[in-house]
Write a structure and sequence with these properties.
Layout: H1 13-22, H2 26-37, E1 40-43, E2 50-53, H3 56-65, E3 70-71, H4 78-81, H5 90-101, H6 107-110, H7 113-133, E4 137-138, H8 139-156, H9 162-167, H10 170-177, H11 185-191, H12 193-211, H13 222-229, H14 238-269, H15 271-279, H16 286-302, E5 309-313, E6 317-319, E7 322-324, E8 329-332, H17 334-337, H18 381-395, E9 401-403, E10 410-412, E11 416-418, E12 423-426
Parallel strand pairs: 2-8
Antiparallel strand pairs: 1-2, 3-5, 4-12, 5-8, 6-7, 9-12, 10-11
Helix pairs in contact: 7-8, 7-18, 8-14, 10-12, 12-13, 12-14, 14-15, 14-16, 14-18, 15-16, 16-18
Length: about 425
């Protein structure tokens, strides 16, 4: 380690204790750390300091340039996703990622076009029904139904049926419960045992169908790839396939649903943005698609899919001139990087044009990372952007939802989601 490196500045323990006494969100503490000490700073909730990283150069150093020095440890959702791709490390992670990677890039994405469009048309038909009847519906629930239908079609080749949808409601229930589960693993498992049993039953049926060669109307899905891999890769037993199935549902369902729900809430507060996107070009034009994608990107700037990315220093290092000792917990926080006024002009203003106007967004790759960057960036990035864009192309020209009430804030778990229901009617 370089001898000239400085110690990481650390937030005064009195301020940490004041935050603890006030019962604030963890993100509030992070905000204090960043505001007072800068983009590489430490705080202490236990015996050892944790280093918070929001500076884009340091972000790139940790995630993209030196991922071998800053490694993942146990994933917060491990009791749900097991040894799936999000939680896997080392050689196991490399093998699992190689198998899935081709499915989510370039030509691989084309096999999902029909499935994404089918799910979007189903959601648009429900939307049209709500417009005709004036029924009150929950926007968040609708976005979850769409996202779950989309990923289920990708996994199995089948549209989501009502029975499976009811059983898989256990997935967001477990995700929402994660922050409040007991620290003890056995106790945590027991607290959500019923939900996990329902998820396992659905997974078991789907895996058996894929092993039997049953394909849906859209053809075989990702499950068929996973079950087929077992012939040459013995690690792909039913348990690992189950873990990958649930991982793909969580990663391809919860994050997308949260993004779309936030987008509708942001458009409710900024109605002119919706009109500008529709006026950018004719239906189906490249200009309108670019404008719709800008809505998605600006929403992801406010509420990134991965709001915090935990890592552990595997060896001593120097990060942006600061000493990092092996064993130090490092938290990269895209949520705060995306709201840094030193990087983004008026960061608290919803302004999709910053993603369509040259020079309006920071150029450094560590400045905008809603899906992470580097080798562990989200595998389904293109899938998520495609499904959100296709759904919005179907829904934006229709009536806009008029919210009866809106959540007072955000809930910070694996994702950042609205903290409460989002009842709405479609405006006349």
């Amino acid at each position: 380690m370089a001898t000239h490196a400085r110690p990481v500045p650390e937030l005064d323990t009195a301020l940490v204790e004041r935050w603890q006494a006030g019962g604030g969100e963890l993100v509030d503490l992070f905000g204090q750390v960043r505001e007072r000490l800068g983009g590489v700073a430490a705080f202490r909730l236990g015996p050892r300091p944790t280093v918070l990283v929001t500076d884009p150069v340091a972000v790139q150093h940790v995630l993209a340039l030196h991922p071998g020095r800053y490694v993942k440890r146990s994933h917060r959702a491990r009791l749900l996703i097991g040894d799936g791709l999000l939680a896997a490390t080392g050689e196991a992670w490399q093998r699992q990622r190689r198998l899935l990677q081709s499915q989510f890039t370039g030509p691989g994405m084309r096999r999902y076009e029909q499935r994404i469009t089918g799910a979007a048309r189903t959601a648009a038909a429900r939307w049209a029904s709500y417009a005709r009847t004036g029924e009150v519906f929950d926007v968040g629930d609708e976005m979850r139904r769409f996202a779950l239908d989309t990923i289920w079609r990708a996994l199995t080749g089948h549209p989501l049926d009502p029975g499976t949808e009811r059983e898989l409601a256990a997935v967001p229930a477990v995700v929402a419960a994660l922050p409040s589960l007991p620290a003890d693993g056995v106790a945590a498992q027991g607290a959500v045992a019923d939900e996990l049993a329902r998820i396992d039953a659905v997974a078991s049926r789907a895996i058996a169908a894929a092993r039997a060669g049953e394909a849906g109307p859209d053809g075989p899905g990702l499950l068929h790839l996973l079950t087929g891999a077992a012939g040459t890769r013995p690690e792909y037993d039913d348990r690992l396939i189950r873990d990958e199935l649930v991982t793909l549902m969580v990663a391809g369902h919860e994050t997308t649903a949260s993004t779309l729900t936030w987008l509708h809430l942001l458009l409710d507060r900024n109605p002119g943005a919706r009109e500008q996107a529709l006026a950018a070009g004719a239906e189906g034009s490249a200009e309108r698609r670019q404008a719709v994608q800008a809505l998605v990107h600006e929403t992801l700037r406010f509420y990134p899919s991965a709001w915090i990315l935990p890592r552990c220093a595997a060896e001593d290092d120097v990060l942006a001139g600061y000493r990092i000792e092996a064993g130090t917990d490092v938290l990269v926080c895209p949520y705060l990087t995306h709201r840094d006024p030193g990087l983004w002009e008026e960061p608290e203003r919803f302004d999709p044009a910053r993603f369509t106007t040259p020079g309006r967004r920071p150029a450094h790759p560590g400045s905008y990372l809603p899906f992470g960057i580097g080798p562990r960036a989200c595998l389904g990035l293109q899938f998520a952007l495609r499904e959100t864009t296709v759904l919005l192309e179907h829904l934006l020209p229709a009536r806009a939802p008029r919210f009866r009430s809106v959540p007072g804030g955000a809930a910070y778990s694996i994702t950042v989601r609205p903290d409460g229901p989002t009842p709405a009617v479609l405006a006349g």
